[in-house]
Write a structure and sequence with these properties.
By secondary structure, this protein is α/β, with parallel strands linked by helices. The chain has 17 helices and nine strands. The protein has a single domain, classed as TIM Barrel (Alpha-Beta Barrel). Helix 9 packs across helix 11. The longest helix has 25 residues. The radius of gyration is 19 Å and the shape is globular.
């Protein structure tokens, strides 16, 4: 399907655009009253696993704001759940796996996944959203990256230090690589299925990879990211692949070796410096600190202008936050930010 608003896809390809494209991680969610109203009646997994509800939530910010891309409403942990882990979202605690992976035997028990069956709810939601958008803007699909999925699966949930996961990686080397091979196969097939369903791009969220040393990343993660991205690009060479992680300034030179079309960066590094580390032959996504959106407009406008100034109008910049929109963010500030970026970066034809 031809997309009317091509800004996001053009920027992914490092082509000139009439204005810098904007989309925001977690652009659907708790800061929007329409989402909170729906969430009051349904659990998070009920929303995710109902294609109709997931479609509704995906479209909420697209109906409210002038965004240049949508992203499907889903969660990265439904993939390891489909492989045999028991997932629950606990109020005040977040996602928990009740049977975490702690031994090589646990890794052996993980089942391969056919995403077109086990994750059909998200694929059906992608089809519904694409149909509703009718070519207005592109839709982004996504998956957790293998390392972050492994960290959650071993730790059993979120953590400040991920001691259990990192110790497993360091000591259970054979089981670690077996786990990464299984997750890489699942992530790759899931991304391919999302593209087949209509996703115009896919983002790989590696939320926890910034905890690693560059040496550990290169030995235990990079080969699997390369496999994932190469397989996706071989099957769909025109579909951009975005790779994003937090607190990854020390890993950015290795990030470019993944082969990703676009590298997402958080706010802990100047965007121009990050682009130099990644290489100007790659597109970059980022990187306003989402906390700025709690301040007065003059404050976040100044911060957003600094991001745009760092990009210096070079083709290949996609404006985004350095991580997701935070709960209680004023929706009018989100709307204002998107408008400000478009107006400030407008390039007369």
């Amino acid at each position: 399907m031809t997309v009317a608003n091509q800004r996001f896809l053009q920027a992914c390809r490092r082509e000139p655009v009439d204005a810098t494209p904007v989309w925001l991680m977690r652009q659907a969610g708790r800061y929007m009253s329409v989402y909170r109203a729906l969430r009051a009646r349904h659990s998070i997994l009920e929303l995710i696993k109902s294609p109709e509800h997931a479609t509704e939530v995906t479209l909420q910010p697209l109906d409210a704001f002038d965004l240049d891309a949508g992203i499907i409403f889903a969660d990265i942990l439904t993939l390891p759940e489909a492989m045999g882990l028991e997932l629950e979202f606990i109020s005040g605690q977040g996602p928990v796996f009740h049977n975490p992976l702690r031994t090589a035997v646990d890794v052996d028990r993980l089942q391969p996944v056919e995403p077109r069956e086990a994750l059909a709810f998200t694929l059906d939601a992608i089809r519904l959203v694409v149909r509703q958008l009718a070519g207005r803007i592109p839709l982004i699909g996504f998956s957790g990256a293998p390392f972050t999925l492994a960290a959650y699966a071993i730790e059993g949930g979120s953590s400040r230090s991920f001691i259990t996961a990192k110790t497993f990686m360091h000591q259970e080397t054979r089981a670690w690589h077996q786990l990464m091979e299984k997750l890489t196969a699942g992530v790759t097939d899931y991304c391919l299925a999302q593209i087949e369903a209509g996703a115009a791009a896919v983002q790989l969220f590696d939320s926890w990879v910034g905890m690693l040393t560059p040496t550990d990343f290169r030995a235990g993660v990079l080969p699997y990211m390369q496999q994932t991205i190469q397989r996706v690009q071989a099957a769909h060479p025109d579909v951009p692949v975005i790779y994003f992680g937090t607190d990854t300034a020390g890993l950015l030179p290795s990030f470019r070796e993944t082969g990703a079309t676009v590298i997402g960066v958080d706010w802990r590094i100047d965007l121009a410096q990050a682009w130099d580390l990644i290489g100007r032959d790659r597109a970059i996504q980022g990187n306003l600190d989402p906390v700025y959106l709690f301040a007065e407009p003059a404050v976040w406008q100044s911060a957003a202008r600094q991001v745009l100034d760092a990009a210096a109008g070079q083709p290949g910049h996609i404006f985004n936050l350095g991580h997701g929109v935070l709960p209680r963010t004023p929706p009018e500030h989100v709307a204002g930010l998107i408008d400000f970026v478009h107006r400030t970066s407008c390039r007369p034809s």
